[in-house]
Amino acid sequence: MAENNDVIAAIVGIEPGSELAAVVAGRADIMALTQQTHDAALMPAEPGGLSHAERAALACRIAKINDAKDFEEHFETLLDNSGASGDTARIADIWFDGGGDSRLKALIRHVDLVAHAPKDATRRDIELLREAGLADADLVRLSELVAFVSYQIRVAAGLRLMRGLA
């Protein structure tokens, strides 16, 4: 799935003029902010210590964990467009654990934990990221990415349910 000015609308398949389009139009401000957050979380002008490729691969991984095929395709496109290769591209593979790279291992472990069982995350999990070399700003960036992708998947699921009721 290619980049779109409204990723959720494209993924959900909101048809112009539909009842769902009218409902979404009533929340245009929220949808616009959601799209802005998508762009900021995945393709910020200054990515800091999390490259665009890593962000796309981690987002793809979260989509796979949530069995969100449409988002998986979207994030795979972002990953392909980032020019990722090697272990960075492999982050999206849910069977890849980071190999011999302690930083990637820590990133993947944390994302998997928070995507599967966020209530099980502890202070120690943040310490493990720091021990792997992540700066505090990158911890915030990673947390924002995981939270946003999870939110985005759930908003799309809710809109699909609404479409089914219309």
From TrEMBL:
Cross-referenced SUPFAM superfamilies: AhpD-like
Superkingdom of origin: Bacteria
Name listed for the protein in its UniProt record: CMD domain protein
Organism encoding this protein: Aminobacter anthyllidis
